[in-house]
## 1
Amino acid sequence: MDSPYDVLGLDADADDTEIEQAYRRRVKESHPDRGGSAAEFQRVRKAYEAVLSGTAAPPADATAEDDATATAGGNTASSPTAADSAANTDDRDSQEHSADSAGDRPPTPTRVEYLNYDVVADHQWEFDDPALFERASDADLDPDDYGMFLAEPGETLLEAAEERGFAWPFACRGGACANCAVAVVEGELDSTVDNVLTDDLVDRGFRLSCIGRPVSETLQVVYNVKHLPGLDDLRLPADRFERARADD
Ligand code: FES
């Protein structure tokens, strides 16, 4: 079976930006609407999640190189040393620090972990359960329902989800309804314009994904919460906007 790195065409030392670019390219190539297939599309998504979560096996050529080095009796620079790990940790710490101090929007992508509210309801999980995302991670859910992706700085959460092949709910795309609402469990989703959500809903962690931009390094959201009490009343019929766009 191909390594997730091979599926995405990545080197073992690819950084987050390279991972993101490779994923976008492969999503387009493998999408059923663009000549790919559903199976290949899912394979690409699973590979992306495995690379992001750090569970992916290294690419085949990296394994071959390691084997060749070991056969030649060399051990130079093939495996990271404790000092390398410490240095990498220091680098990450310093990057995280500079991201924190750089202002509202981090210069690096936000790692978004998402969960479909339908799954929460089906499993009768408690919405405010602190272990909610751990349960989701252990439940072998469909990639449409649970997973991770990287959102680029400046992207709205809805744009980021759509760029990566997901079909999350929306209607107006302008902060005027609650169709695109998400519940932020951890992290921050910044909205710079007024919207329809009441103070109470905002205090409870609800945000609009069509105008909300991730501003934390990690973000956990439950999407598709539009039917929850308080949000359902703010929904608009999505087809009205689809008709308006078709008439443009
Ligand atoms: S789609 Fe209407 S507020 Fe986001």
## 2
Amino acid sequence: MYCKLCLKNTDLRESHIISETFYEKIYDDLHRMVVISLKDTKLKLIQGGIKEKLLCHNCEQKFSKWENFLKKDLVDFGKKQSKYLTFSFGDENIIQITGIRYNEFKLAILSILWRLSVSSHRYFCLYKLGVYEEKIRHILLSGIAPDESIYPIIITRHEIEKEFYSGIIMQFPPKYFRQLFTIQTYTIPPIKIKQLFAIQAFTIWGHTFKIIVNDNNCLKINLGRYLRKSGYLKIKTQELIELMSEDSVLKRIDDQDVNDIYEKMINESE
Ligand SMILES: [Zn+2]
């Protein structure tokens, strides 16, 4: 079978689409988790995360190196203290962080987004990168993260009643926005076109990552809120409950079937 990253015909591993390291707080003592969806009404327990034959051994190793950096950083973001990152606190809900290893951090996030897109598992059908799938594959193969304004990333940290909460992985449908920009021509008046941009988002280890799927510099954004190449990042803290909307799986949290399955997990783990 062909590895989706290096395209070599070789033995493939059962790869986690989202690395197992991010499931740590989600599994029960029997290494199980429950997938809650807006569409699937029947809940069931899944053993050991969602896997698929995607990558060869070498490519999996490459991803796992980046993921370990990301995980360490996210754990520290959660605790708001670190041996090598520096935190400063301005506004009550804003944390400013310096010292992030930009290259590994950004590649880890892009590699998760890319796996969500190449996966054929029905749970990840919300993530389809289209032409950007191949572009991001090349970035991941090169091991060099793109500039801060290319696939820019915003991160939000989640709490439940002021306590950092890492026990949820969430997916979101893509959101779109349009921006008007001028094409470089000599015509008068200049030609302006509206370009459509997609934002893809996912939540792992208590943080929601929003990525603007775009690889050219025409996008006009205020980089202040995005991950910077210098290793600087400003993150906003938000109560998880604020994400509860009609298209958010959080609205299922008080449903009877969801409560029942959590109770079953607790009873069987004892
Ligand atoms: Zn490979």
## 3
Amino acid sequence: MMRRTHSAALTTCTMKGRGLFVPFAHGVLVLAFMAQHLFAAETSSTQATAKPAHVHAGKKQKDKAHHAANMQANANVRRPDTAGPLSLVVVGDIMLEDGPMDAMRKGQDPFAGFASLFAGADIRIGNLECVIATTGSPEEDKPNVFRVHPRALPYLKRHFDAVGLANNHSGDFGPQAFTQMLSLLKQSNIGVYGGGMNLSEAHTPWIIERKGVRVAILGYDEFQPRSFEADTDRPGVAWSEDSQVLRDIRAARSVHKADVVIPVMHWGWEEPIANDRQRQLARLMIDAGADAVIGGHPHQLQDTERYKGKPIFYSLGNFVFDGFPLPINYIGWALRMELDKNGVQKVEAHVSHIDPNGLPKPGKVLADPTLR
Ligand SMILES: [Zn+2]
């Protein structure tokens, strides 16, 4: 149904305080889509099992027993050397200015609603759609630019192992602010993907190993017009150039020795159904070896699918964000995935309801939407 070409893409995640045109037909699609996903059966109680992140020593026995049971249950489909599973939580777009910053100024944690989901996961990541800096100057003629005070860092650090920088707001205050953000995140021991001090850094996956499984996360922006792109001698974001993306995915395995490779994309229109471009690239990425494809930017949920058995989530919607005009902008998914060396073994979508101040509250837990 998407007839526009990718090169004409001018969708924006800068709709704060502005009118958002959504044709009636799309409204119907939104309703049908939301009904399909939101009224599906719950799989479990979402936030029930809090446990400290990255706890290994005290849990070794339990993990071992769990692992053995899991191996037994899946003996016919898993290799004997399978490790894990580990849990990965991925959330959508995080914008910490305005309502979320007001909350933090009062000492309120904007992520508190999902604290137990994060605490119970081995790896936690999300798309940071704002600059964290005290320097730089706003990009001229950009209707909405987001820069937040470094007081946001302790909250991010509490809940996230790494954040994605490949989006259309990382460059809002120029290279100086972006560079400051990179060093602030590094000081806070928060990893990054999809951005760096140069082309090579921006295209290097964030690698993390948990429970014997080595995971590579890559990030790419393709919001038009092409801008704030890292180059050989210039900081910026990783651009979604197909050939480069596919090379990066292959290198994540061959050079970085990852067992599981997940590209996180910043793409698409502000519509409930992914466009042809997204579908085409998702397939190419999986053909190149991606174990899952996860996207954001449309500021609403988009449809999902499986390709060659691998899950594709075209858009997780907003996670922490305010200033939007429509109810669909205030709902998103926090994905909880279980990974082992063979890839993604299980997915749950934890529905988040974002309040008017941009803060997410947990809702239902949906069984893997890509299997419906
Ligand atoms: Zn965006």
## 4
Amino acid sequence: MTHGHTCTVCHEPIPDQGIVCHACWDRTVAALASLGALMADLDITITGQGRMPFGSSGSGGVPYDQKAAGLRDTIRAQLVGWCLLLHEDHHMPLPNDTIVDMAHAVALSDLRMHEAAGEAVAEITSWPAAIRTAVDWPAERSVVRVWRCPQGGEGWQCEGWLHVHHPTEGTPYVSCHACGARWETLEQMDELRAVIVSQRASARLLTAIFGRADQVRRAG
Ligand SMILES: [Zn+2]
Ligand SMILES: [Zn+2]
């Protein structure tokens, strides 16, 4: 049992009876420790969507709140599962029924020694990335069409649409696919917001850029 004993996750040798090694368990504890802050972000995503100015207008639809809520429910259920397992098999006292309390209890537990530890490491360490993906806006880190392009001049008015781009790397920017105009800095975006006088368009632009209801409210 002790001979040639290796981690079920990374297959490194383990000096004790653990099912997973200390390095893998450390990653798990770090994921559990980050859960409180990440869940707070996720809650903002879930509750904030309902207050978006165009959320009920039927323009495009924003399915992400349900998705984020589903993720929260899944993580909570999985966390409850690990607590119950540790309670039954390792006599761990049941913690309070909050994400933070349960995560804290699991982090301090001897789950590393449990036969299901490999499964626990895989599951728990997947949570932070899943939450970060869910709180990103837009969901696909792509392009959101927001409003008519305001560019124009003597005798012409651009017929294009403004798009907010969220590159995978770097900061968001706004551009018009028709005339090629581009707004990159916060100052430029603010100028753009001043040009598109409609409050709804302005709010929609900010939401597409920042994706947070609080930013929209601040823009009033
Ligand atoms: Zn390992
Ligand atoms: Zn244009």
